[in-house]
Amino acid sequence: MTESGTMVRGNSAWPGVMEHYRPFLPVEPGEPVVTLREGNTPLLEAPRLGAVLGGIRLYFKLEGCNPTGSFKDRGMTLAMSKAVLRGARAVVCASTGNTSAAAAAYAARAGLPCYVVVPGGQVARGKLAQALMHGALLVQVDGNFDQGLAAVRALAGEHREVELVNSVNPYRLEGQKTAAFEVVDQLGEAPDLLAIPVGNAGNITAYWRGFCEYQRAGLASGRPRLLGVQAAGAAPLVEGRPVARPETVATAIRIGNPASGPLALQAVAESGGMLTAVSDEEILDASRLLAQTEGIFAEPASAASLAGLRRHAGAGLLAEGMTVVCVLTGHGLKDPETALPQGPQPIRAASPDAASLAGALGL
Question: What is the pLDDT of residues 118-140, one digit of tens each?
Answer without folding.
Answer: 887 767 788 889 999 999 999 98
